Fold:
Amino acid sequence: MKVFASFVAVAAAFAVGFTWTDIRAGIRPDLSKFKPKDKNTTPALTPTQLFTTEYRRIQALYYKPINSNQLLYAGMDGMLSALGDPHTQFFEPYVNEEFARSTAGQMSFGGIGARLSPDPLGVKVIQVFRNGPAYKAGLKGGDIITAVDEHVVAGETSDEIVGRIKGKIGSIVKIRTFRAGKDTVNFDINRGRIIPPSADGNMIDGTNIGYLLVTGFEQPTPDQFFATIKELERSDPQGLVIDLRDNGGGLLSSAVDMLARFVEFKTVVTMKGRGERIETVRTPGGLLHAFKYPIVILVNERSASAAEIFSGVMRDYKLATLVGEHTYGKASVQNVIPLPDRTSAKITIAHYGLPSGTAIARKVDDDGTYISGGIKPDVEVKLSTDPNVALGNLKTDNQLQKAVEIILQKNPKAHKN
Structure:
């Protein structure tokens, strides 16, 4: 009996809790809410109606004021996450703006305009961005930065050194370098607004081979890509290495425009959407360029999306040799749908196949560990585990070394006389 009495007391307490707001307002409690409802008399709500109803209920009943946008964003994020597709995402306003700036090639900071890699003495200049502050000051590829603002940087990480070099636009940074044959060379460089190019290059020291690094497929990338090729061709290259390692992709349209320099009116991808919808994307005509030298493309597991499309198409049409490690295996295409309040949704609309029909979709186990997928390179070379490896540096980058070796085998003229 004591147990039963306790149960009744608890039930009564819940009942008081449910009806207290009515009693306090002088309203007779509606006890009908405690009666079982006939399922047949309750009209079914659509998912949209149910979401809207509960959203409004939370707004009205939660015990303290809430941020309506935060609640809505969480709901949108959860809805897209429930699809189980890592490439379908909801972008809040800040993330959406950053994504738009990134694809437009507008990410900027105050700096000198150079791409750097680790070196025992500090950092080595791999590339100097054309017409940037470092370029105008006379900094050159191969220079080793040993001090920043009189502070010796040997032993610091690349990120720490880059942090010292970056700063307010218009301010001066003092750079001390070691240059082969000249020992110490000092520079006073006015920091400028730096928008890192997504395609840039240089001639590889000691060879007649061009090196073209593509870090993403953004809106300006095709123009930067071809401008770099024309600049390199002033040096009469006898081979070209296109580096797509760590390139996460970007715009399919940019990949198509770049491929149009190599082939015209050719299939790039065949996209299969919902139902039976199939769309074939081809290169336009009128943009062909005569490449009279062998081309090698470097890839790794972080080469994805448009980077896989570009490298896969180049290989399918026998225009390049792929060197490195297997690519990521992202065989899907997304559209970015603008939403109210400066938000957007990136939604997978189709899966694609390369011209050869090779299946590249990534497969992983329950722990997310890679099983298969991606594009397997023609020549597999695992990157050296040496901590001094710097991508793009011929002395330490063993994958680049293999690419150069292949070009030299195909064209002896690529040897530096």
